[in-house]
Amino acid sequence: MNEQKKLSAMLLRRIGASKLDEAELYHQESRDLDISAFEQEITGFTRSRREGLGARVQSGGRIGSSFTEEMHRKAIDQALQRASEQLEHLPADPAQVLYPGDRVLFDVSRENPGLSLIPVEQKKEFVLKLERAARSMDKKILNVPQARYVESQWAVTVVNGRGMKKIQLGSWCGAFLQVTAGNSKQVHSYSVSAADTSFYELSPLRLAQEAAAGALEKMNPKGIESGTYPVVFSQDTASRLLGAFIGAGRSHFFGENVQKGRSRFAGRLQQSIASPLFTVYDNPGGSSIFSRSFDDEGFPAGKLVLVHQGILKAFAHSIYSAKMAGTSPTGHSMRSGYSGVVSTGLHAPCLTNGEQELEELFDICGEGIYITELEGLHAGLDPLTGDFSLSARGFRIEKGKLGKPVGQCIAAGNFFDLISSIKGKSGDRRENTFQRFSSPAVLVSSLWISG
Amino acid sequence: MDFERELLEEILRTSLSRGGDYADIFIEESKVTSLHWDSGTLRDVQTGTLFGAGIRVVTGTNFLYIYSGNPSPERLREMASEASEAAGSGRSGTIMPLGDSETEEKHSIQIYPESAGLEKKLEYLRRSDEAGRAYSPLISDVIISYSDKDQQIITAASDGTYAEDRRVRTRMAVTAVAVSGDKRESGFYGPGKAMGLEFFELFPPEGIAREAARSACVLLESDHAPQGSMPVILANEFGGVIFHEACGHALESTSIAKGASPFAGKLNKRIASPQVTAYDDGTLANEWGSSHVDDEGSPTRRTKLIQRGKLVSYLVDKVGSLQTGHPVTGNGRRESYKYPPASRMTNTFIDAGTHTFDQLVSAVDNGLYCRRMGGGSVNPSTTEFNFAVAEAYLVTNGKLDRPVKGASLIGKGTEVLRLIEMAGKDLELGTGMCGSVSGSVPASVGQPTILVSSLLVGGRS
């Protein structure tokens, strides 16, 4: 805590010396571990100590921003100086204000100190076991190109010249596993991952079973005739697709995009925008590794319902966009660490669970496709129009039952059409993944499939 | 940056003191500036310094890597001790005296970004914004990202390698939004070079914005792309992303060493059509993916990967060389000190062929011409790839027809390389950021215009 007092004192000096209205420091540090295994040897071992500091200064409706990885006093003062030098070049905007702060908060609720007490050798053994289990699942498993354990123990501190001090500690661990299966005529690959705050919740056997089954089930795929089909998205693919539109920077659910004229939902609060099955909220207080007590400007992060049963309820706001809209911030200021700039983001958003079993969704679907893998989300979708065209794999759904595997095909559609055509949801959303957005499996009435 | 050689040698000795065959140290100081312009005004400015170091110890073909910010001599010594403890006991490798950093200047910089004030950079943004809006009354918005990075590195290794390098890169990326009635589309263009601000003499900010605006306006007139397999003509420049994804990643020793690539064990075998000769060349003057040395201190080089369809080399870093026995090709790259290096592409391209653009188009009865590609990705284990098409045209009876949008292309690298039927004369390189095991690195992709006899197109009509 003494360190935070020093930083606050430094800010006060800088505010006084440079005639600033306000200044803020965002300090981030972490201890990370990354272990990989191949053919029962630890092939990669990376350990790190990372630290950095983002400095923002405010004067006359302008905010300057700089960062440094040098943690001595002179370097921090230089970062504040560089941020101050930007001010004269920036346009004045009355909404550009730093958060004055509310109360001192020291939140350790997401930290698992036990993670650092677990010996490194035990974590190495976890990776070896993961690789061994995957190889031994079936004779048709050809290779395990990736078996990896990662962990991070982090702390974020936000202080300002008015005495705001917010400190949040957290930790998480996770595993990645990729297997290939096949024979002389075909090779198929499948990847799985899991993330948790507890080391003991990670099960190498469960991951190995999931990865092996995923690769083996892809054997002897059939082509599919191009056309339109009803589609069931798995938990993972629904999470990734919906998250790419709802949680990404150009989301139509962000207040700043409404203000820029880039949200199709502008002026539609309390109106129907989607299927009644579409209820989406952000829950920073949940058990996800992305849960937080305050956002990246120090504003308290609370639950925010964006859409309830298809009715648009709210937009997510940063301090800036809330001021522009004349409303209250929602705790959704986000920056990609100390070196990033502040914009809007969601913490741990989700589509709520339905009440159906996956098999019931297949039954309702009748004849269609169950999509279990999607690729190309970073480039194959247009956030502005909602159009997407993505590489996909999965299974036929025939007479309401899961059928033969489908080889690589392309699924194309439009996000706005998709959320209006949700016909069913499963009840098994998972939060223990590296995906911020979590979704149950989802049945939609029609997508273009090219095969 | 000022680090005494004696200190570096001490760090290497400590790192190998309890065992390990090889050790290296990578120290980086990078100054970065990014500007974000949106809705006719400057929205964000970010400036800062990255400063850190990583120590790697290699035992057999396995590595351990310790990295940290603030690499004071004391911190480096702590890291070396930590590395030696983690490396465990065993035979220690030989430590050679550090050599000299001999790098002939190949990527000279005329105007270092730091030497120009913020106002100069803002002027480029204003000019770009004005030109984009002036292109057409349909253009409603121009979003501009400007970034520059001045990275200084030192790398020293127990095999005697010592290298210093300074990499300066400048990039401007423009997204133009066009609106007509209730239709709204965006176009993108984002070139970059290993240059200072002289980059804007090669790529005036107005030209970057006009190209993004042109693409956005074309998309407003576009119907949805068709679906199904068809002949596809892929334009030059960023069209080269197909080779980068479909083949390049699977030639990296990271994949080869684990037998996780279908190209493992295929040296001197035919893997592509005879139309294909391809290179990775990190020496191209001031090119986006170029540098004097790679991030292991090995000089970059021009590596022929495919000679008329026959595979002749992989992309190999130092650990990859130990694992595979293939010679180092100067491709050990990383985003920053926060990643251990891995085999990565620099500027990778299919070489020019002999055909004109008209010859390629006239060879297609019914197909697709992809003028501008978006990004893509690949699974190196299977070479199954996907690319987004940003701007495309139907080809009907050997002639360019109406524009179409919203397509992806998919296929297998091992198959598509054999389906390249014709290559044009018009080789150009395009700018990209490549994400993989050692982070996001600047990489150029390139090709002449090529004709692929069949690719699966995923449209909506």
Task: Describe this structure as you would to a colleague.
Chain A is built from 10 helices and 19 strands. By secondary structure, chain A is α+β, with helices and mostly antiparallel strands. In chain A, a hairpin with a 4-residue loop joins strand 6 and strand 7 (187-196). In chain A, helix 1 (2-18) runs parallel beside helix 2 and helix 4 runs parallel beside helix 5 (204-216). The N and C termini of chain A lie far apart (60 Å). Chain B is of the alpha+beta class. Chain B is 20% helix and 42% strand. Chain B has 10 helices and 23 strands. In chain B, strands 1, 2, 3, 4, 5, 6 and 7 form a 7-stranded antiparallel beta sheet that branches. The longest helix of chain B is centred in the N-terminal third of the chain and has 18 residues, at 118-135. The mean pLDDT of chain B is 95. At the A-B interface, strand 2, strand 3, helix 2, strand 7 and strand 16 of A face strand 1, strand 2, strand 3, helix 3 and strand 6 of B.
Average pLDDT of chain B = 95
Give the strand content of chain B.
35-45%
Report the helical percentage of chain A.
10-25%
Termini distance of chain B?
58 Å
Mean pLDDT of chain A: 93
Could you tell me the number of beta strands of chain B? 23
**Main structural class of chain A:** alpha+beta
The helix/strand series of chain A, from N terminus to C terminus, equals HEEEHEHHEEEHEHHEEEHEEEHEEEHEE
Terminal Cα span of chain A: 60 Å
Strand content of chain A: 35-45%
Can you summarize the main beta sheet of chain A?
Answer: 7 strands, mixed
Biggest sheet character of chain B: 7 strands, antiparallel
Q: Could you give the count of β-strands of chain A?
A: 19
If helices are DSSP runs of H or I spanning 4 or more residues, what is the number of helices of chain A?
Answer: 10
Shape of chain B: globular
- The Cα radius of gyration of chain B reads 23 Å
- Rg of chain A (C-alpha, Å): 24 Å
Alpha-beta content class of chain B: alpha+beta
- Poorly predicted sequence stretches spanning 5 or more consecutive residues of chain B: none
